[in-house]
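Please complete every field before forwarding. Incomplete forms are returned to the sender.

SECTION A: IDENTIFIERS
Entry label: holo-309
Bound molecule: nicotinamide-adenine-dinucleotide
Molecule representation: SMILES string

SECTION B: INPUTS
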Amino acid sequence: MKRNKITVVGAGNVGATCAHWAAAKELGDIVLIDVAEGIPQGKALDLMEAAPVEGFDSIVTGTNDFADTADSDLVVITAGIARKPGMSRDDLLSTNAGIVKSVTEQIVKYSPNCFILVVTNPVDVSAYIAYKASGFAPNRVFGLSGVLDSARFRTFIARELNISFEDVTTFVLGGHGDDMVPLVKYTYAGGIPVEKLIPADRLEAMVERTRKGGAEIVNYLKTGSAYYAPSASVMQMAECILKDKKRILPVSAYLQGEYGEKDVFAGVPAIIGGSGVEKILEVDLNEAEDAALKQSIHSVRTNLAKLSL
Ligand SMILES: NC(=O)c1ccc[n+]([C@@H]2O[C@H](COP(=O)([O-])OP(=O)(O)OC[C@H]3O[C@@H](n4cnc5c(N)ncnc54)[C@H](O)[C@@H]3O)[C@@H](O)[C@H]2O)c1
Ligand SMILES: O=C(O)C[C@H](O)C(=O)O
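SECTION C: PREDICTED COMPLEX
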């Protein structure tokens, strides 16, 4: 039986931790690639030497040569710079746009049939760049946003109610920026609408904390951004493809008329399975939610307009 081949581009905090989760879950064999010489090789060997202890059988290799990524089933792009306190994700655009484009060209050259999961920020623009540079169908390229943002919102709600994290479900939609849209109306604890369990002012505080969730971690770390929850989130998306799970997840997907938007990537609920983004789901939004989603997507378009694509 053929094993899945997963390439992670960028062996920094997010990339190396993606490899860690992928190995621990035995999602396939893993190739870590980075421009920094020795880093992917060292981290890959270190991770593989955990296999006898943890009991996983993934082969993990590190490289600086894209030829070693050939015939990957799935490629995760984490290459690029992370923000520091005082910066927004948009401040990363001018550096990361070129990195995402060149990396995508290399990916496609060696793995013409892969799925591409984009992490590099600002992610909705990076996903657009990867989509255009790859020439792939839109179902094969998507970005990490809502799974992470929803995980943060779920965490805050579970702690507030002192219940299991797993029992909270929600959607955070829109661009992965400060005006992302946590949807309180679609937030449940064990099937019960959270609006019935938590006072409105407490919920609003958690919505605000979710919107600033990335910056909260950046302000603690000082020299980089979050990576445990981001990499766990991206590997959940990867698992859905590799195991054809058909889960409904909020992801940054290419819109072709859904929610009244075209030719842009933004966070929407979608069925994620063996064909990647199998279907984008349109949920009912009230006037305020719809306006917030449009504003958030407008911010993504403002960034896109800064690029000469
Ligand atoms: N979408 C999200 O929800 C989300 C979540 C977390 C992080 N991020 C983003 O992910 C990116 C990576 O974050 P990190 O914490 O891992 O940063 P990091 O600095 O720890 O790692 C980035 C790695 O990319 C490598 N790199 C740079 N250019 C490269 C190239 N051309 N080819 C291959 N590798 C290259 C660097 O050498 C470095 O090892 C950042 O842009 C960050 O903002 C996004
Ligand atoms: O906030 C960042 O810069 C990284 C990432 O987008 C996050 O939400 O943690």
